[in-house]
Design goal:
eight-stranded antiparallel sheet, 8 strands, mainly beta, about 210 residues
Amino acid sequence: MNLIQKGLLAIMLVSSSVAYGQLTEDPEDRRGDGKEPLKTQTPEGEPLPFSQRLRFGGGISSLQFGNSRIGTPFIIGLSPVIAYQASERLIAGVGVNYVYYRYRLRTNTQTLTDQFNQYGGRGFLMYELVPSIVPNLYAHAEFENNNIRYADQAAQEYKRRWVTAPMIGATYSQRVGRLAGINLSILYNVNYNSDIYSQYVYGSPWNIRISFF
């Protein structure tokens, strides 16, 4: 495991620990009074400080266990996130994308091995649409930028390039604390059909993910 992999794994572990603290410590929860806790104010109506509006978390963006006899790759992706509750209905955030690929093919005479990394970042906005009718349903807009490896057939070598992916869709958040939730997102990559390199990042224009923050 190289330095980049170790660093990203450490970020993910720290983010998960902080997120767990948000989940278990919620001194201003109003549910005892039969009310949903506000996301940006204390029960007394005072604005929450910046630090208490932050959410830390993320998720596993990819996971596949390879079989060396049939040539399927081993893939694992991590996506730590920092989000900010800008208002009662608006969430803004940034995240890091990292995917590790390892390909091993075993034949009768030799074993072929290849491994590489894909990395990048993203920024997103989530706006709660109709909280009075469907609470915790958000319109979701996101911009990703990922550095990928691709095969240059003319030069007969691997090269790297950045690929942008503006995505739109929706997220449903199942809240488990004042500033914590399990999120199901369905997003559409607007660039997928117009940029062939987008297909190196995702196998479909539709991206479905589960995250925690």
